């Protein structure tokens, strides 16, 4: 599967998920209004954020598949992680809104509704199947954005189960439990936002890739096949979306000409790309002063 086909497949997954999330939002909103349940309305708001996320992710995917240009010479892959960051921000706001809503509607009576109960159970089943299907697609298409979205969908299943339990207890006369479970949903949403922040921010701020295969010690082992390379002195790495870029400082024989050193750098770059999943490598050459003295 080439890159264009891969991005098209990812977009199809997002469109299908968006349609399901729209249906989930309308279903939960209807049940919440009928039963006057704060926790169900909170879950409907949570599903609405899923729909917004699908739109954001779809736009991000379209942008990220563009080739490098004058404005973005390293490519547009980070837009996927920008979408994840925006989702985390959105979920943080939703979590706060749920807390405020739960407090303001504390103690309100909650009604039982058999039709609503059946619809909510079906919604839970559909969301669970959707999360499993989406995670499978994420692994097949190697998409961290889809994987993050699949985890989000699975969290919706857990949230909806808590919502269902809270609603049934509140409808049995324990009205205050509706508020408690609504606050529990807010906590789950906040936790998911925290996980997504941790996933997106290291990429957006160019944190070290933290890949053991890119340590100085590991890369220096590859120099054994090159007589004129003494060692790797320094490594800097960062993620560009799903790809890793690295900057290396090579210590080479001081007797090499500029042309020879340039050729050696390209040969070592190609060698690394065959053994390590690297998108781009920038190599800085320095002479081996210890060898020159001897």
Describe the largest sheet: 3 strands, mixed
CATH superfamily of the largest domain: Cation efflux protein transmembrane domain
Largest sheet strand order: 1-2-3
Which value, in Å, is the CA radius of gyration? Answer: 26 Å
Describe what this molecule looks like in 3D.
By secondary structure, the chain is mainly alpha-helical. Helices cover 69% and strands 10% of the residues. The chain has nine helices and three strands. The chain has helices at 3-35, 38-64, 78-104, 114-141, 144-171, 175-204, 216-222, 258-275, 289-293; strands spanning 229-240, 243-252, 280-287. A three-stranded mixed β-sheet has the order 1-2-3. A hairpin with a 2-residue loop joins strand 1 and strand 2 (243-252). The longest helix has 33 residues, at 3-35. The relative contact order is 0.11. The mean pLDDT is 78.
